[in-house]
């Protein structure tokens, strides 16, 4: 989700502008309890909500927003 987008979290599932993004896990593969980031509202200016493709990614679902100024590179798929 980008600044100005509408983000909602319902029952552990994340949505950006109504589009489903994925869900947070209650525990890591090692069994450690995870605390999901909960936010409902407009993504603040200067912030991003980022997610990896793997269910095991430790990303914004757990640590919250990333500041746009902290993004150094963008990866694009090759195909």
Strand order of the largest sheet: 3-2-1-4
User: CA-to-CA gap between the ends?
Assistant: 23 Å
| Helix and strand run | EEEEEHE
Note the beta-strand portion: 25-35%
Helix content: under 10%
Which structural class best describes the helix and strand composition? mainly beta
Shape: globular
On the 0 to 100 scale, the average pLDDT is 92
The biggest sheet, with number of strands, parallel, antiparallel or mixed sense and barrel status, is: 4 strands, antiparallel
Which regions have little confidence, pLDDT < 50, spanning 5+ residues? Answer: none
Rg value: 13 Å
Give an overview in words.
- With 79 residues, the protein is mainly β.
- It is 5% helix and 25% strand.
- The chain contains one helix and six strands; from the N terminus they run E-E-E-E-E-H-E.
- It has a four-stranded antiparallel sheet, with no helix packed on it.
- The longest helix has 4 residues, at 60-63.
- It starts with 5 loop residues before the first strand and ends in a 12-residue tail after the last strand.
